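haha ok so turns out i had the wrong file open the whole time. this is the CORRECT one, sorry everyone. sequence first:
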Amino acid sequence: MSEKKTVDILIVGVGGQGTLLASRVLGKYATDIGRDVKLSEVHGMAQRGGSVMTYVRIGEDIASPIIDEGGADLILAFEKLEALRYLHYLKKGGEVLYSTQEIMPMPVVTGAAEYPKGIESQLPGVGVDALGLSLEAGNAKSANAVMLGALCKKMGLDREKFENALLSCIPPKTIEMNRRAFALGYAAV
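then structure:
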């Protein structure tokens, strides 16, 4: 992460996947390395499995937390349909780091719609089997730590400082599981 450049990251997913925790970890990391950071969370119907979007802006002097459409350097997506849904926020030359997990939205569950096919071919970036790796780490709830490990590697962040930011934001009883998940995500990219 360049010392002078502002980095705009859009985190998207489905309620309950840990997207808000991911934004807090990025915020902690940014402040730990002496950068200004602004976060803004849009919950939607998060408690009912709906779409969740969080803006994370890291730089020298950030005035607003909002990322305009076409302004995100990176989209971190915890579910691939959510990556596709918010692709219009990605700037030209930006990348998407997404979990290959599929969570069926309510219209698909009720039979009113079908889950789109071929999403990966439309996403400029890297897919990670976050769910599979989190199960390998010990618990599906650590998929967000997998994605944070992948993000750390993808962005070339200081691994030790980023992992410490993660571990400082989670309950102590989950540290070892999340440490394993983070390492698996880091190795996956």
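Residues 79 and 103 are 7 Å apart (CA to CA).
again sry for the mixup
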